[in-house]
Amino acid sequence: MVLFLETEAREGLLLYEKDGEIHQKPMERAEGGLRVRVFAHTSPFRYAFRLPEGFLGSHGLEKTLPRYDRFFHLLAGPNPPEWALGAVYYQIFPDRFRMGRPELAPKDGEWRYGGRPIRKKAWHEPLGLEGAFEFYGGDLFGVLEALPHLEALGVEVLYLTPIFQSPSSHRYDTEDYLRVDPHLGGEEALEALYQALVARGMRLVLDGVFNHVGATHSWFQRALRDPKSPERGMFTFRPDGSYESFWGVRSMPKLDYASPLTQERFVFGKDAPIRYWMRLAHGWRLDVAHSLGEGGTNRKNARWLRALARAAKEARPDALVIGELSYDATPTLRAHTLDGAMHYAGFAHPVMAWLSGRDVHGREAALSAGEAWEVLWDHYRALPLQVRHAMYTFVSSHDIPRALWRLRGDLELYKLAYALLFAFPGSPALYYGDEVGLSQPNPYTLWQGDPYCRAPFPWDEALWNREVLGFVKRLARLKKTHPALRRGSLLPLKAPEGVLAFRRRYRGEEVWALFAKEGARLRLPRGVDLLREEEVAGEVEGQYLLFRPAG
């Protein structure tokens, strides 16, 4: 491969680790910097640069050789599928999005969940505290009906939270992985949705809940009743008969990937769900990917994530497999595992803490624009080059409070958050309803996402915020039409204090992105304000700006 370093230095060395030693290779002068050709003998390939002024790694210039974790990391392949790079996502929680066929909806008290009868609620009935027991009746036929709305919005990839048979409304406690929940319309509805998406040039990503099963799953029930059953080894039982589960929740017993039967049923077998459903989907988001592993822990986590991703790609070569990595995604993604991850630590958390003044748990977080930028910049540089544009990047999801609620209804800050989302490297993800200004009913003294962030979509258009909807459509259009925003590199941009600013560059095109929570006055060269589609030069004022300099 050829590495090019943009620099004013006239000489330099490439440093790379091989067989425990640091090797070095002189770099040649090239227009605008230095370059070197090198064979990547392993993956990930770790490298840094030695320049006259110091050592350059992912954390910038240092006076001494950086630690290996501060080297740059390059994966030799396979790379994420081309279609996923910078793609615009839309996340749907199926029970709360749209009711297509009312007769499919569960009936009030139709079954018991956790010893209590389920509730069937009217579409506009307020949310209750027990979200898993409450069903509103959304289904996949409803999603199919909504495709014109999503297409007009600019959506390219649909991500559905779990759709397989389950006794709860969130469906993260699966009881049959090979059966689409009948209350969502079954496989007939999934196939119709898949075909309609393909016809529109859109793609579908499913939620893979492979860290745990539901306690009502027949495999777990056999393991529970008979200690000598083959299924017993699929789970981690303690001497007192209790068992390991997701976050200690008994309804979600954790799978043990040390078990050959677990491996066969979830990874290697032809009916393993990650393979089976690739005929009706284009990829997977792996639930709690950071927790999956052996012996009731995440032991050998990277090995099994790698195996799951390989299984999906064997069934569909252009499949995308990303993970819910709720904390630092860097070590996992450097380990040649997944195509990307939900960008919590490197985007959602720092951005929303800066804008709202509170972290995701509601604790005070006095983060300045400069400090927020340092977190974004740090995580971006630490990620392997190939996965940066496949990161699922967002400000709202089904697990955290909605962005508009966190910002206390401040529409300008909300628009700033979404402008930053679409300007940043990665694949921007809209959470259903965010595009029309859907918020939460709970008071700020009760800082909570689930269940309040899972309200039904307001299909009464009189309830929509048209300003927000138009703004999001413009952002999606810009992401899709400007290569610098979709595939460009990320570079710092000098700006006044209080302004978070960066540049995106790709093959001669450059876009400047500037964001000021309190507003700012900026002095610009001649260019185009992309959001307003007008030429500007000199002083401008505002809270957010996407600017393409002339020339």
From TrEMBL:
<dbReference type="GO" id="GO:0005975">
    <property type="term" value="P:carbohydrate metabolic process"/>
</dbReference>
<keyword id="KW-0378">Hydrolase</keyword>
<protein>
    <submittedName>
        <fullName>Glycoside hydrolase family 13 protein</fullName>
    </submittedName>
</protein>
<dbReference type="InterPro" id="IPR017853">
    <property type="entry name" value="GH"/>
</dbReference>
<dbReference type="Pfam" id="PF00128">
    <property type="entry name" value="Alpha-amylase"/>
</dbReference>
<dbReference type="GO" id="GO:0016798">
    <property type="term" value="F:hydrolase activity, acting on glycosyl bonds"/>
</dbReference>
<keyword id="KW-0326">Glycosidase</keyword>
<dbReference type="InterPro" id="IPR006047">
    <property type="entry name" value="GH13_cat_dom"/>
</dbReference>
<feature type="domain" description="Glycosyl hydrolase family 13 catalytic">
    <location>
        <begin position="91"/>
        <end position="479"/>
    </location>
</feature>
